[in-house]
Design goal:
Distance between the termini: 50 Å
Order of helices and strands: HHH
Radius of gyration: 17 Å
Shape: flat
Number of strands: 0
Largest sheet: none
Strand content: under 5%
Structural class: mainly alpha
Amino acid sequence: MEMGLNADGWLADTRTSYDTVAASYAELTRHILDETPEERAILALFADLVHA
């Protein structure tokens, strides 16, 4: 039996996977921008460009 890729199922599985690790990942990375002001500045520039 051939296994087909179901886009809706794949998307739901992907969302569940990300949701499962999101809180722990956020906790692990929440202070990174405090420690790297150059990355904070680059991210701010990117956000300004996206907003414009």
